[in-house]
Amino acid sequence: MYEHDVIVVGAGGAGLRAAIEAHEEGADVALVTKLHPVRSHTGAAEGGINAALHEKDSWDLHAYDTMKGSDYLGDAPAIDAFAKEARHEVIQLEHWGMPFSREEDGTVSQRPFGGLSYPRTTYAGAETGHHLLHTMYEQVVKRGIEVYDEWFVTRLAVTNEPNPADRTCHGCVAYEIATGEVSGFYARQGVILATGGTGQAFDHTTNAIACTGDGQAMAYRAGAPMEDMEFVQFHPTTLPSTGVLISEGVRGEGGILYNDNEERLMFEYGYANNSGELASRDVVSRAELTEVNEGRGIEDEYVHLDMRHLGEERIIDRLENILHLAEDFEGVDGLDEPMPVKPGQHYQMGGTEVDEYGHSCVDGLYAVGECACYSLHGANRLGGNALPELLVFGARAGRHAAGAVEEEPEIPTGPGAKSDDWDEESPAELGAVDASDPVAADGGAVATPQEVLEQAVETERERVETLMERDGINHADVRAKVQKTMTENVNVFREESNLKQALKDIREAREEYQNVAVADPSRTYNTDLVHTIETRNVIDVAESIALGALARKEFRGAHWRKQYQERRDDEYLKHTLYAWNGGNPELYYKPVILEGHEKKYEPKIRSY
Amino acid sequence: MSTKIEEKPETETEADEQTSPGEQRRELKRERAAEREQQIQEELSEAEKTVGIKVFRFDPEVADKEEPRFDSFTVPFFRGMSVLDALVYARDTYDSSLTFRHSCRQAVCGSDALFINGRQRLACKTQVSDLESPIRIEPLPHQDVVKDLVVDMEHFYEQMHAVEPYFDPDELPDGELEEQRQTPENREKVKLSTRCIWCGACMSSCNIAAGDNEYLGPAAINKAYRFAMDEREGDDRKQERLRIVEQEHGVWRCQTQFSCTEVCPKDIPLTEHIQELKREAIKSNLKFW
C-alpha cells in the first residue's frame, strides 16, 4: 500500500497544477497516471489561454463572455472566480518559463478567439497545450513531487453510507501496467480526479485514445453524480480523415470558411452576421453541417478553411504547427491550398459534479479539468477557456485538499441540491446489468479508512482475475459499437428517435460487456486488460450523454434538438444530474446560479 | 437601372442557349459528381489492397513469446493509413495481446516512437504508403524491451531529469500581474528546442548513447539548451547549466554524426544545439575534454 496526504489521479494540466498547489501548501502529494505526465492530452491543445491581462480589458468582460458562451447554463460563482484568477495563473505560468509568443516590446501576445469581446487569448504558437504541459511538468520535477507513471487507477475507496453526501473517499486502487500489481493508495486528505475527457465515446474525435472518461465513471460509481453530460462540444475545424484538430487560432488570425460554391458561408447564409468565422464553436459547427446537409459541402462531407491570404510569414510565425498537422495527417499544404475541415467531438462540458473548489459531494473526493463540472462552461465552452480552467481550478482543488481554504462553497452538490426529477421513462434499461454484482455497488464499507481501502483493493483484484481467467469476447467490438451509435445518433444535430436508438444500442453494449474477457495471459504490460476496463467507463459516460440529451427538450448551446428549436429558460435553466444510485441510475435537476457577488447575469438572446 | 438593363439581355442570351446560371451550377455539380464517382471507384480498388506488417514480439512471462520472434499480419489498406492505424487494426482484429504505447495519434504525446523499416519514427505520423511492404516494426533499439514494442523509458527520463529541466530565473518582476520580458528574437532562438516531445527517437539513434550509458543524450542536452539560451534566466544560472552539460558524459561526447537530427520527428536541429553549447562552454572558459 502507498500513502500520501493528497493523491492526484491523472497528470495532464489540471492534475499537475493541483499537485503543485497542494505541494506549495505543505501537503505530501503524489500524481498517479496511466500514461507518463508528458503524454497527457493537454499537450494537444493548440489555440491558447484566455485571461484579461490588458488594461483595456477586464475580468468581468471575460466573465460576461463566458456566461454568454455557456448559453446561461454556467454558475456565477465558478465563472467569476475563473475570470478573476485566470490572470494571475497566466502570469504565474510565464514566471515558470512558459515560452509564450511575444510582442516587439517583450510582453505576452494576445489574439482574438471565438466568442470573446476582446483579444485576450495568450498563446505559444499553435502548440500552447504542449508548452503548458511541459512547463508545469518541469515545475513538478523541480519540487520533487512523486509521480507513479503508467499506474491505471480503476476504483475509488469510498465508504457506503446510503446518501452519497455522507460518504468519504479514503484513496483509490491502481493497477501497475508494467507488472500487473494491484495496489491501494491511501489518501489522508483527499483524492483529486484529473483524468480528462470522454472523446472515446465517439469515433470522430480530436481526443486521444486514452480519453475514456475514467474519472467521471469512477466518481459516478462511487456516488458523485455526472452533471450536464449532454453538452458535448464539436469543434468546427477537425481534419476529416483522422479528427486531428486544426486550431481556432487559424480563424483567430483571419482564416476563412468556404463552402463548395466558394461562398464565405458564415456571412452568405447568415449564421453569424457579426462575428462570422469567430462565432462560438457550436454555432460554426452547426453552420458547417447545415452546408453539407443542404448540398453545399465538399464531397458531401466537409468545408474549406483557407488561411493562404495571411501570408507565409505570419502563418509560420503563429500557426506553423497547423502546417505540419495538415501535411502529415491530411496531405494538404496549408500555404498552397485550403484545408478540409469538419466538426468533430472535442470537449466534454459536463463532468463530475463539483463546487467552485472542485469538491464533490463525497468528502475528500475532488475533480478538476475536463473531467469536472463546476458549471463554468455550461452549455458551450469558449475556445481558449479550457487551459485557464485547468490552471484556476487545479490550483483551487489542490489548495482545498491541502486544507488551506476557509471559505464555504456557494455551489451546492449532491442529492440535497436536487430541485426536480425527470418524470419520464427511459426507452432502454439503464445502469447495472446485474445490480447484485459487487462491482455495481456504490462505495465500499462503512468501516475504518484502511478497511475501506483494503476492501476496494480486494474487489479490484477479483475483477482483474475474473477478466483474465474467463473466456469471452474482445472489448474492442463493444467499444466500437458504442462509438458508432454515439457518432450516428448523439452528434451535433439530435432527434428523439436517434437518441432513443443510441440508448438501446448502449444497453446492448452493456449486456455484451458482461461477456468480455482479456485474451492476453500476461501480467507484464497488459494493455488488453487496461483497455477492457476503460471500455466500461466509456459505456457509463455514453449512457449519461445520451440520456441527458433525450431528457433536455430544448436547444441550448451545443445541445440542438430537432423538435425543440428554442432555448426554454422557464423550464430548463437547470443542470442535469445523473446519479448511479446503486446500479439503478437516477436523472434529476438542480437550478443554475446566475447571481454572483458583484452582479446578476440576465439570460439574453445569444447571437454572434 | 442601367445595370439591370445590361444584365437582362445576358440572362436571356444564356436562357436561349439553355444554360442559365442555375443550369451551369447543376452542370458543374454533375461533373463533380462524376469525378467523385471515379474517385470512389479508385478508393474501392484501393480497399482491396492490403498491407503486410511484421511485428517484433516478446513477453518474458508467456511461454511461446519468451524467445523474441516476428509475427506477420495482413491489414486492409486505406488512403491516409498510418503505421499506428495498421498496428491498432492488427491488435483489435487479430491479436489483442499485441502491445505498444500510443495515445494522441497526432505526433504530440511522443508515445509511439518505434523502429520502422530500420529507422526511428513516430508510428502515428508515418504513412504506410511511404514504406516498402511488408513493414518491419520493432521496438526502439538500445533500450530494454519490456514487451513487444514497449521499451523501458526509465533511463531516458533519468537523463532528462539530470539537466535540471526547469526554468529558474534570478528574479521576477515586482508587479503582481507583470510578466518577464522576452524579445521575440530570443523566443525564436529557443523555439525549436521547446518542441521536444520526449519520444526518445534521438537517444535510440545515437551511437554514443549506445556505447556510453551515462551520456546525457541529445534530448537532455537540447532541454539544457532550451534554458541556457533563454534570456529570462540570469547569467549565473547559465554558467551552472553549462557546467552540467560540459561534464565528461555531456556535450563533448557528441561526434556530430547527425543521426539524432535526422530522426527527430519534430525537426529539432539537435546536433546544432549540442555544438552551440560546446561553443558557449569554451567562451565561458570552462574546461573541455
Could you explain the architecture of this structure?
- Chain A is of the alpha/beta class and 608 residues long.
- Chain A folds into 3 domains: 307 residues, FAD/NAD(P)-binding domain, CATH 3.50.50; 104 residues, Alpha-Beta Complex (Flavocytochrome C3, Chain A, domain 1), CATH 3.90.700.10; 131 residues, Methane Monooxygenase Hydroxylase, Chain G, domain 1 (Up-down Bundle), CATH 1.20.58.100.
- Helix content of chain A is 34%, strand content 17%.
- Chain A contains 15 helices and 22 strands.
- In chain A, the strands form 5 sheets. In chain A, strands 1, 2, 6, 7, 8, 9 and 16 form a 7-stranded mixed β-sheet that branches.
- In chain A, helix 2 packs across helix 3, helix 12 packs parallel to helix 14 and helix 13 packs antiparallel against helix 14.
- In chain B, a hairpin with a 2-residue loop joins strand 6 and strand 7.
- The N and C termini of chain B lie far apart (87 Å).
- In chain B, the strands form 2 sheets. A 5-stranded mixed β-sheet of chain B has the order 2-1-5-3-4.
- The radius of gyration of chain B is 28 Å and the shape is globular.
- Chain B folds into 2 domains: 105 residues, Roll (Ubiquitin-like (UB roll)); 119 residues, Alpha-helical ferredoxin (Fumarate Reductase Iron-sulfur Protein, Chain B, domain 2).
- Chain B is α+β, with helices and mostly antiparallel strands and 289 residues long.
- Helices cover 42% and strands 11% of the residues of chain B.
